[in-house]
Specification:
This protein is an all-alpha fold and 156 residues long. It has 2 domains: 30 residues; 123 residues. Helix content is 85%, strand content 0%. It contains 5 helices and no strands. Helix 2 packs antiparallel against helix 3 and helix 3 packs across helix 4. The longest helix has 29 residues. The chain starts with a helix and ends with a helix.
Length: 156
């Protein structure tokens, strides 16, 4: 009798968990800005992993070449995943357009983040490592947010 009640409770809990999981995945598949932002962040994380793997694989050639190759390939991967998954624009935006415009935004983002970091170093020299790391994270988050808005509003 006790086992039957425990099984019934477990089945109810499993059903509730499955329903909650279904709602979350349904939301993440939607076209709401928050769902797109979450997918954008996941794609960014995956493209960073691709960058790191390529960088490590090519480090024997030299760190500069490995960095350039990793940056280009991870940007191409991210742009394609954003086109297909994040913004579901494969039917509206072609591969070349996504690469050209998304790549251009990536270059602009690189310029903005580099200028911000150079400005930080110029205007606040001697910051501690933790403060500077926090500033880098804040700058990269701001650039990523602006990239999301630009991709969502203008490219896809």
């Amino acid at each position: 009798m006790i086992l039957a009640a425990a099984d019934l409770a477990f089945d109810g809990y499993s059903r509730l968990r499955a329903q909650a999981f279904g709602r979350v995945t349904g939301f993440l598949r939607g076209d709401h800005a928050l769902a797109q932002l979450i997918r954008f962040a996941l794609v960014g994380g995956l493209s960073n992993i691709a960058y790191a793997l390529l960088f490590v694989a090519m480090i024997g050639i030299g760190p500069l070449i490995a960095n350039i190759a990793g940056s280009i390939l991870s940007t191409v991967i991210a742009n394609e995943l954003h086109r297909r998954l994040t913004f579901r624009a494969a039917g509206r935006v072609g591969w070349f357009t996504a690469q050209w415009e998304g790549g251009g935004l990536a270059v602009i983002g690189l310029g903005v983040s580099t200028a911000a970091l150079a400005g930080l170093d110029f205007f606040a020299p001697g910051l501690g490592a933790m403060v500077e790391a926090g500033a880098v994270i804040a700058i990269m988050a701001a650039v990523g947010g602006l990239r999301f808005l630009a991709l969502r509003g203008f490219v896809f």
